[in-house]
């Protein structure tokens, strides 16, 4: 169960090698979390992540999970929940893709969409149902400011995040009053392996900063968290720019 401040004792990470997710797990372990499930494709990186978290004192398990195999989600995730209540599910898997290549190769673009949206819808619904059966818990969904308005530079990724964001908001409304809390996190440019080599955007942030924002959001039972917070104002302005003006911006 969560403590008086809304922080979890047990955590399930979907996307077990995500740098943002692991930064969040480290922060929560330092506060309260004692049991962690890392769900992801079997790999040395997943085992290394589990080992690092065990070194912090947590009881860590790994589970084979593939976002692109929705047919397996109910069985795989059901086994995790069967082991005991999960206080927090962190949905953190995603694929940035390569915009130029993905425009040339529709199959690659579809992979981005299926990972970021279809896979998340499947896993999100499976976990939401399990959390609802428990009668408590939080689902934190890693969205992105890229979903606020599609940009020429990354509209394939941005459109997938727009769909994910809308889904998570609707799911939160559907679960309101059930004891299950859904929180959407919208980071801007985060310095990770996924963004290495890309031009850095203004207001760039770090996995640790996102983790701090997630913890604060959980304590406050927030429904939407922007990282950094200033992006809320920036994106409100960009969202309402005339399309002809927006198209000419160097973003």
UniProtKB/TrEMBL annotation:
The keyword Oxidoreductase applies. Keywords: Oxidoreductase. SUPFAM superfamilies: NAD(P)-binding Rossmann-fold domains. This is Decaprenylphospho-beta-D-erythro-pentofuranosid-2-ulose 2-reductase. The keyword Oxidoreductase applies. GO terms for molecular function: oxidoreductase activity. Pfam families: adh_short. Belongs to the short-chain dehydrogenases/reductases (SDR) family. It is an enzyme of class 1 (oxidoreductase). Its EC number is 1.1.1.333. It comes from Streptomyces dubilierae.
């Amino acid at each position: 169960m969560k403590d008086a401040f809304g922080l979890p004792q047990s955590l399930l990470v979907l996307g077990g090698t995500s740098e943002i997710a692991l930064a969040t797990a480290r922060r929560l372990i330092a506060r309260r979390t004692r049991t962690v499930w890392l769900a992801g494709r079997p790999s040395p990186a997943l085992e290394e992540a589990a080992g690092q978290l065990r070194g912090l004192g947590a009881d860590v398990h790994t589970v084979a999970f593939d976002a692109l195999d929705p047919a397996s989600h109910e069985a795989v995730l059901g086994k995790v929940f069967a082991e005991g209540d999960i206080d927090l599910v962190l949905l953190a898997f995603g694929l940035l893709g390569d915009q130029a290549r993905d425009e040339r190769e529709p199959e690659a673009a579809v992979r981005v969409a299926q990972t970021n949206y279809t896979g998340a819808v499947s896993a999100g619904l499976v976990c939401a149902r399990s959390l609802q059966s428990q009668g408590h818990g939080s689902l934190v969904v890693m969205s992105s400011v890229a979903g606020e308005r599609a940009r020429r530079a990354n509209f394939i990724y941005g459109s997938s995040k727009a769909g994910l964001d809308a889904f998570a908001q609707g799911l939160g409304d559907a679960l309101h009053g059930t004891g299950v809390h859904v929180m959407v996190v919208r980071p801007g440019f985060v310095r990770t392996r996924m963004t290495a080599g890309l031009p850095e955007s203004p207001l760039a942030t770090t996995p640790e900063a996102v983790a701090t924002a997630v913890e604060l959001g959980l304590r406050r039972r927030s429904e939407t968290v922007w990282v950094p917070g200033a992006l809320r104002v920036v994106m409100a302005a960009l969202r309402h720019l005339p399309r002809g003006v927006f198209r000419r911006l160097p973003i």
